[in-house]
Amino acid sequence: MIAAPFHAGERALQALAGSREQMEAVGSRVIRDFMPDQHRQFFSLLPFLVVGSLDAQLQPWASVLAAPAGFMHSPDVTHLRVDALPAAGDPLAGQLQPGATLGFLGIQPHTRRRNRMNGTVEALDAAGFTVAVQQSFGNCPRYIQAREPELAAPRAQAAPVQWLDRLDVAAHRLIGSADTLFIATAYPNEVSEGDEADASSHGVDVSHRGGRPGFVRIDSDEEGRDVLTVPDFNGNRFFNTLGNLAAHPRAGLLFIDFDSGELLHLAVTSEIIWNGPEVESFEGAERLMRFRVTHALRRPAALPLRWGDAQFSPHLAGTGQWNSGMRVLTEGR
C-alpha cells in the first residue's frame, strides 16, 4: 500500500471540502502501488484505453488508443503492457518515450466499470510500450452513460489533423451536445517542490466526466476566447483532478463523436468555482470547473470504434441543465 497517496493539491482540496480526515484513513487502503488481479483482468477485456500525457511545456493532453480486446495485458502486478501506439497527429505521440509519466483510465461504458492507473513508461518498441505502476485504484460508476463500443474498419488513409486557434461551429456542436468528456491533469515535479507526499502521487492523471447532453456550457470571454464551464458532481472525494488543477491549472480535454469517431483534443487553462449563484443554479453541482481554450486539435475519424445508443446514468436524475444561450464572461469572475 502507499503510505502517503495524496499530494499537496489534493490534500488542500480535501481539507476545503471537509473530507481530509476521511481520505487520510481511506486513501492508503484503496490506492495501491500494484494492480490487483481484478484490475489486471479488466484491462485485458477492453478495446480502448484513455491516456493522459504531459508535453514539454507542461501541457496535459488526453488521448485514446483502440485495438481488439487483449491488446493490453499485465505480465505481473506492477506492470501493464499496451500493444498499441498512437497515430501520427495524436498528442500522445510526442510524449511517448521511456521515463514519461502517463495516466490511464480503463473504462467499460456498457457495464459502467472503470479503473485508474498512473505510471511511468519503462520500455517502448515498435509494437507498443510497458508501464510500471505508480498508483492503481477503482472509481465509482456514477455519471457513466452506458454505450457499448465495437471496432470498425480503420480508414485506408488517415484524414489530416486540424489545429484550431478557436473553436468553430462543428466543435461547438460536438461539445454542446456531449454527455461525456475525458480530462487529463498533472502534478508535475516542477510544481511539487517541498511536497513530502509519496512520489507516486506525482505525475499525470486522466479521468471521466459525464452529465446530461449539453452539461458543458460554452461561453466566450471579453477577448472572444472560448470558455467552457463544467459542473462537478459528488464523487469519491479524492480530488485527484481538482487537486491537480489547484496546483497546476492546465488541463487537456477530449471529446469523442460516438457516431463518426472524430476526436477533439483541447488544451485549456482552468479555475475552480467553489460557490456562488452559478454553482447554486445548476442542480447537483457541488462546484464548477471553468476552462479557457488556448488551442484545439481535431482528428476526423481517428477512433475506429462505433457505439450504440446510450443509456444515461440513473444518477443524472439529480442533476440539472444549463439555460440555453451563449454569454460573455469577464476575467476573474
From TrEMBL:
InterPro entries: Split_barrel_FMN-bd (IPR012349). Gene3D superfamilies: Electron Transport, Fmn-binding Protein, Chain A. This is Uncharacterized protein. It comes from Variovorax paradoxus.
